[in-house]
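Input chain follows. Return structure tokens only.
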Amino acid sequence: MKTKAFALQVKDLSEDGTFEGYGSVFGVRDSYNESVEAGAFTNSLAKHKRAGTMPLMLWQHDPWTPIGVWEDLAEDRKGLWGKGHLLAGVQKADEAKILLKAGAIRGLSIGYREVDTQPAEGSGPRKLMEVDLLEVSIVSFPANPKATVKSERMEEFARRLRDGDPMPVKEFEDLLREAGIPKAMAVQIASVGYAKAIRSESEGKANNPAIGELRAAVSAFLPR
């Protein structure tokens, strides 16, 4: 079994532990130089439906620590959408609820088996065309730093980037720090890569690939 973290929205975590959001966004290159393509989960979800089962909701990919149930998982144009709830009275589930509400953990990661892939072409990513989805875990340290729960500041960042009014460099650095990125790395990303990208954008340079990739990466944080 392989695992992979994705850009994630967790919206409206209720008092009874119910939440919904995206566990996967299609067509986004991740830190493994892979991307999940639209339709990747279709056959697996259909198989679960026929069997009357659902992928497990685990804590940290531990098969001995289920913490909730997924009530619905489905593909839409954006990615893998899900609705589930944490099980009250289960110790780790209660802890996960507290930690999520406090923003102390912000990760979600899928466990899967590869079924069909396409090799990377040129500088492009390796593509996952079909996967067998086994479980979706809440995790402390997602493999992909984009795998964070929705926050008001992240939604603001995504909205401003979309509307051509990018967040100032220092605010973006603070946002990275909030997401758990080490200070030195956050400073480097914000003051070099991000600053250069938004400077090119402000100078009217068309088809800026860095801004395009950044917009794609944060699109999951915009309201559904």
